[in-house]
């Protein structure tokens, strides 16, 4: 179990690094707005690691599912935020929320694969 | 195009994705999904860039059945950069306002009830005073030296100095003994 958790956290770090590389690549390619919106995506991996890690540190015997649940709760309002942004034609927010939710989708898929 | 509009347009254009969108729209009018497929960007990203392009006036849109179709705004891109640079800038306008305020202050200091109290020693201030006196002359009319002296004497008794200085500053022209108000761009 611990090994799986370590794998998951390592994957989160690598995924974040990959997004940050993309952020830098977009910026150097003269796509600053897209680069900035992708920074929000990179933060999602950190949020997942911090929230899940804090629970596992506090209660090492808790199941991964229970430790992971708060992250799922935190990310749920982002979907509502995306819908609200679409309804109000807030194109910048739609772009940012979609980037954040794409990280959530990747994280959920990885968690499902490992646990 | 105002200076502010030009700045917004240039800022908007300083993005590779937006340039790619404009290049696509040069080929043909397109809707979001078509641009998304063509440029490999998400529909949300394309919509974001199109909004920026529309705000800058670079792109226009129209409804066609279920789609919003976007077109390049040729009028904006047909303006030459030289034309934009020739536009009077807001900073220039502010400078003109400051100059006018200074001018008014000098006139209030040196004139009292329409009479020139003294001739300013500073050239810049004297020029303002002389320009104010020059308003008493009619354009495209010949004046004898006596007529010039009488007009200037209404402002100040030292009409000889003022008359000579007005000629030196090219506010009045003198051809033999005939004086004329100089054309505004003669200075």
Shape of chain B: rod-shaped
Biggest sheet architecture of chain B: 3 strands, antiparallel
What is the CATH topology descriptor of the largest domain in chain B?
Answer: Arc Repressor Mutant, subunit A
Strand content of chain B: 5-15%
| Relative strand content of chain A | under 5%
Q: What is the tally of helical segments of chain A?
A: 4
Given helix and strand content, the structural type of chain A is mainly alpha
Radius of gyration of chain A: 15 Å
Q: Domains counted in the coordinates of chain A: how many?
A: 1
What string gives the helices and strands of chain B in order? Answer: HHEHHEEHHHEEHEHHEE
Q: Count the helices of chain B. How many?
A: 10
**Helix-strand makeup class of chain B:** alpha+beta
pLDDT averaged over residues of chain B: 91
- Return the average pLDDT of chain A rounded to an integer: 92
* CATH uppermost class of the largest domain in chain B: Mainly Alpha
User: What number of domains of chain B?
Assistant: 2
What does this structure look like?
The complex is a heterodimer of chains A (115) and B (187). Chain A has 115 residues and is mostly helical. Chain A has one domain (2-114). Helices cover 89% and strands 0% of the residues of chain A. In chain A, helix 1 (2-28) runs antiparallel to helix 2 and helix 3 (64-87) packs antiparallel against helix 4. Chain A is globular. The N and C termini of chain A lie close together (9 Å). The mean pLDDT of chain A is 92. Chain B is an alpha+beta fold. In chain B, helix 3 (32-39) packs across helix 4 (43-55), helix 7 (90-110) packs across helix 8 (123-134) and helix 9 crosses helix 10 (159-168). Chain B is rod-shaped, with a radius of gyration of 29 Å. Chain B has two domains: 3-83, Winged helix-like DNA-binding domain superfamily/Winged helix DNA-binding domain (Arc Repressor Mutant, subunit A), CATH 1.10.10.10; 98-186, Arc Repressor Mutant, subunit A (Orthogonal Bundle). Chain B has helices at residues 3-13, 16-27, 32-39, 43-55, 74-77, 81-86, 90-110, 123-134, 145-153, 159-168, and strands at 30-31, 59-64, 67-72, 111-112, 115-116, 143-144, 172-175, 178-181. In chain B, strands 1-3-2 form a three-stranded antiparallel β-sheet. Helices cover 57% and strands 15% of the residues of chain B. The A-B interface holds A 29-34, 37, 91-92, 94-95, 98 and B 14-17, 41-42, 44-45, 47-52.
């Amino acid at each position: 179990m611990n090994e799986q958790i370590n794998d998951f956290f390592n994957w989160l770090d690598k995924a974040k690094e990959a997004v940050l590389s993309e952020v830098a690549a977009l910026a150097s390619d003269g796509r600053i707005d897209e680069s900035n919106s992708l920074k929000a995506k990179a933060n999602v991996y950190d949020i997942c690691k911090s929230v899940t890690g804090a629970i596992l540190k506090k209660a090492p015997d808790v199941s991964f599912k229970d430790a992971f649940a708060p992250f799922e709760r935190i990310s749920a309002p982002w979907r509502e935020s995306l819908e609200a942004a679409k309804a109000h034609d807030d194109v910048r927010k739609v772009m940012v929320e979609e980037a954040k939710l794409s990280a959530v989708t990747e994280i959920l898929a990885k968690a499902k694969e490992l646990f | 195009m105002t200076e502010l509009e030009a700045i917004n347009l240039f800022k908007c254009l300083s993005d590779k994705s937006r340039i790619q969108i404009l290049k696509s729209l040069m080929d043909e009018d397109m809707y979001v999904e078509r641009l998304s497929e063509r440029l490999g960007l998400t529909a949300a990203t394309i919509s974001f860039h199109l909004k920026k392009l529309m705000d800058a006036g670079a792109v226009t849109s129209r409804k066609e059945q279920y789609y919003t179709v976007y077109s390049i705004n040729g009028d904006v891109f047909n303006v030459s950069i030289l034309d934009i640079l020739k536009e009077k800038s807001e900073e220039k306008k502010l400078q003109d306002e400051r100059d006018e305020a200074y001018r008014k202050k000098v006139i209030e200091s040196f004139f009292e009830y329409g009479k020139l109290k003294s001739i300013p020693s500073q050239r810049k201030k004297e020029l303002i005073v002389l320009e104010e006196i020059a308003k008493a002359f009619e354009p495209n009319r010949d004046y004898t030296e006596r007529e010039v002296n009488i007009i200037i004497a209404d402002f100040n008794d030292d009409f000889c100095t003022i008359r000579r200085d007005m000629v030196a500053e090219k506010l009045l022209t003198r051809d033999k003994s005939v004086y004329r108000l100089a054309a505004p761009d003669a200075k």
